[in-house]
Specification:
Shape: globular
Distance between the termini: 24 Å
CATH architecture of the largest domain: 3-Layer(aba) Sandwich
Largest sheet: 5 strands, parallel
CATH topology of the largest domain: Rossmann fold
CATH class of the largest domain: Alpha Beta
Order of helices and strands: EHEHHHHHEHEHHEH
Helix content: 40-55%
Length: 237
């Protein structure tokens, strides 16, 4: 089955939708937070390891751990540790650290693509994998008004503060993609499907993406599990 990349606007509930798509398709789900958590595992005190052990037992977490920790494809020890957890503007990184960080991100995404049956959220997956024929690229958007409602509900912020938070995140995400890959993340040509969660709830959005993916796989003659793949329509009930 095709791999899915998801790009989403802050406040569009794109993460929620992406997780529901993974549930429907029985796919693994990977985002920056998961990669960061596994990377952190490479440098924690032994007494802290127990906090991660339960989740690290999953096949996906073991895969990421082998990828990131020394002896993996691109060991975390080959890049400055702080870059993995860096939250500031990417353009403020020292040039060499920036190059190493990008190599780490690209390698991780490409290795995840080879794993198959996975939803990759953020980090420019739509650019890194744009030449792969078995990848389905999705963009999740919503109107500013809808996003304000979501952010205010989730954070308790007033309208003015929520607006500033959305603007800050939009600028940061757009800057990351532009600086790292020299593309505009709002360019519709980067995506097979653009979903507006301001016009449909997250369940419907997830089902829309799932149906589109299956049609894409059939049109491209991408092999499906056992020849026929039926997604779990009851998973969101």
């Amino acid at each position: 089955m095709p791999v899915i990349t998801v790009s989403r606007q802050f406040g569009s509930e794109g993460d929620v939708v992406a997780k529901k798509v993974a549930t429907l398709l029985k796919y693994d789900y990977v985002d920056k937070e998961l990669i960061t958590e596994v990377a952190r595992r490479a440098d924690v005190h032994p007494d802290e390891v127990r906090k991660f052990d339960e989740r690290l037992e999953s096949p996906l977490m073991r895969f990421l751990r082998r990828l990131i920790i020394p002896a993996g494809t691109y060991p975390i020890t080959e890049i400055p540790e702080w870059t993995v957890f860096y939250e500031g503007p990417i353009e403020r990184m020292p040039i060499q650290d920036h190059k190493d960080y990008l190599k780490f991100i690209r390698t991780t995404i490409e290795q995840l693509w080879q794993r198959d049956n996975i939803v990759i959220v953020g980090r420019g997956g739509q650019v890194v994998l744009r030449d792969k024929k078995d990848v389905f690229h999705v963009r999740i958007i919503a109107s500013l008004e809808h996003r304000l409602g979501v952010v205010m509900k989730q954070t308790g912020l007033n309208r003015a503060s929520a607006t500033k938070l959305i603007q800050k995140n939009d600028k940061r995400q757009a800057s990351f993609i532009r600086y790292c890959y020299n593309v505009d993340w709002d360019d519709s040509a980067l995506y097979h499907l653009i979903v507006n969660t301001g016009e449909m709830n997250t369940n419907l959005a997830a089902k829309c993406i799932t149906e589109s993916l299956l049609n894409f796989a059939e049109a491209c003659r991408i092999p499906q599990n056992g020849g026929i793949y039926l997604w779990d329509s009851a998973a969101l009930a």
